[in-house]
Amino acid sequence: MDAVRPSSHYLLVDDHSLIREGMMQAIRSLDPSARFSQANSLASTLACLDDKTAEPIDVVLLDLGLPDSRGIATLQTVRQAAATQRIGIITGHADVQIALECIHHGASCFIPKLAEIDGFTSALQALVEGRLHFPSELLSPSEVDFPTPDDETARRTIRLTPRQKDVLEWLLKGCTNHAIASALGISAETVKLHVSAIFRAYGVHSRTQLVLLCSRSPQANMLSSPDNGSSLDGGPRKALA
């Protein structure tokens, strides 16, 4: 199955039109059917996300430095408005602490503007395909306090129920428990229980660690269970509770 989600609608947020045009061309080369909206400020971004008459946005590619908002506060505000959309960060800061903070606050992709062209393309490819991305050059083993399992270990030990798989897919998009509960039609308390079980299955203690683990180990993104071995390709599914 092709991992690229056809006809995705991207909101490109940057206060420089040349950057937006460059992102548009790069994404279109990876996803020819992509459609785009653009914003050059936090206010215009929120207006796009709140426009009930417009086509729903699937992915937000966000610069943290806007004329009316800067830093992590920009991501926090956009995440509140875009509760279930994938958010990728594109920024001039190649700093591991900023990157980790972005992951902690709900981004699933961190792309330094000054990255080498191969790294930049790989990051956009991950965003287009709905995968996680964290720049490997920013991360050393000392940055996190858990080991990365090898592929065989990941395949052998990660066992989730169908509902836990659903919750995980939303978790890896950076969604809050309340957003996941609303999307799946279950209570936030039930989501919390599933999240705890997922953390135990992956051997992590936080959402940030979970995202980093899945970005560092390709097979950690592959979910296996006694009933099937489906993967995280495609969007979240509404399985029976």
Short description:
It contains 10 helices and 7 strands. It is α/β, with parallel strands linked by helices and 241 residues long.
Structural commentary:
The chain has 241 residues and is of the alpha/beta class. 44% of the residues lie in helices and 12% in strands. It has ten helices and seven strands. Mean pLDDT is 80; it is low at 142-147 and 222-241.
Features:
single chain, about 45% helix, 5-stranded parallel beta sheet, disordered C terminus, about 10% strand
Secondary-structure topology with pairs:
Blueprint lengths: L8 E5 L3 H14 L4 E5 L2 H9 L8 E4 L2 E2 L2 E2 L1 H10 L4 E6 L4 H9 L4 E4 L4 H13 L21 H7 L4 H10 L5 H8 L3 H15 L4 H10 L25
Parallel strand pairs: 1-2, 1-3, 3-6, 6-7
Antiparallel strand pairs: 4-5
